[in-house]
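Anyone up for a design puzzle?
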């Protein structure tokens, strides 16, 4: 599906904004000729950029930024002229179908809930991320939106992530699992046991519990848990991958002989690093909203911004919120 689509991009979001965001926008425009971008941010950062790309980029100047150290909900309420809040308002008004930001995750979530709003019948929106597994993409949800959950919340997280896997990642009949400390249905907390029964009864594609060792081995397409556990799991995986590559680099550069050996296997290592890079994913969708909202990593480079915008556009074109509403509610 290659229809015209308009998305809002937060030009002020991310550690290297606005320059890296603008570079990513240019890459996205070159890749997708049917894409129009509305930039939100300081006038001096976006207006000249938009003027040089007439018909493809619009600038909506804002006067405030929400920093990552601010209280997300308070900032979203008080800083109504921030790039994040205005971006979500533009989606609410129908001027754009989706919003992408590499800014504060909490602020994006709070603003999206306040201004875009939940789909009626969705208990809680959930943040999903695509883990860059070397075997196959794996969706992990929730990764931080909901630290305290109920079994019925986990069921909806699984349903929404299943829709995302099928319609955005093109995974046919996604295999869905519940993160737990053992495979048996009697394992884990009371919450996990109740959620297991609920999913077993009413979730097509449910394949049982997932242990931590099975998250990245390709046995499951979707892994569901609460936001606290999901966030710890995600950061543990990211930290371990980073540490292993750092250690491997030290080992392979410790002597001339090892450097020569490394030159032989370097192409394979570079490909592996690319497969495991979060930049290839681009962003994490906040599922359960009336419009599409994708949250990028704060350290995103231009390629990650490109991929985040591309995912946002794909969600809009596929009408993901409508499909979730029809499938879940």
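Challenge accepted. My sequence:
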């Amino acid at each position: 599906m290659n229809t015209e689509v308009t998305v809002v991009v937060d030009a002020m979001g991310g550690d290297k904004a606005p320059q890296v965001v603008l570079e990513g926008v240019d890459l996205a425009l070159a890749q997708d000729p049917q894409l129009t971008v509305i930039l939100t941010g300081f006038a001096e950062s976006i207006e000249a950029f938009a003027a040089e790309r007439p018909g493809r980029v619009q600038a909506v100047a804002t006067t405030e930024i929400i920093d990552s150290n601010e209280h997300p909900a308070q900032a979203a309420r008080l800083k109504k002229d921030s790039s994040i809040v205005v971006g979500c308002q533009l989606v609410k008004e129908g001027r754009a179908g989706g919003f992408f930001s590499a800014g504060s995750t909490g602020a994006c979530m709070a603003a999206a809930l306040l201004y875009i709003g939940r789909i009626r019948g969705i208990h809680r929106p959930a943040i999903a991320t695509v883990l860059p597994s070397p075997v196959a993409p794996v969706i992990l949800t929730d990764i931080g939106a909901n630290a305290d959950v109920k079994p019925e919340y986990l069921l909806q997280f699984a349903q929404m992530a299943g829709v995302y896997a099928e319609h955005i990642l093109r995974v046919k009949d996604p295999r869905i699992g519940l993160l737990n400390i053992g495979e048996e249905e009697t394992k884990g907390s009371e919450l996990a046991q109740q959620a297991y029964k609920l999913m077993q009864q009413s979730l097509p594609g449910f394949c049982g519990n997932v242990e931590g060792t099975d998250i990245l081995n390709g046995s499951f397409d979707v892994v569901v848990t609460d936001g606290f556990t999901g966030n710890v799991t995600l950061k543990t995986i990211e930290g371990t991958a980073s540490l292993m590559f750092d250690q491997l680099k030290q080992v392979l550069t410790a002597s001339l002989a090892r450097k020569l050996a490394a030159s032989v296997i370097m192409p394979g290592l570079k490909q592996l690093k690319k497969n495991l890079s979060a930049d290839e994913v681009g962003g994490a969708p906040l599922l359960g909203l009336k419009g599409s909202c994708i949250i990028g990593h704060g350290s995103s480079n231009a390629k990650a911004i490109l991929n985040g915008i591309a995912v946002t556009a794909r969600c809009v074109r596929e009408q993901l919120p409508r499909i979730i509403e029809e499938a879940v509610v």
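A detail worth pointing out: Residues 88 and 272 are 36 Å apart (CA to CA).
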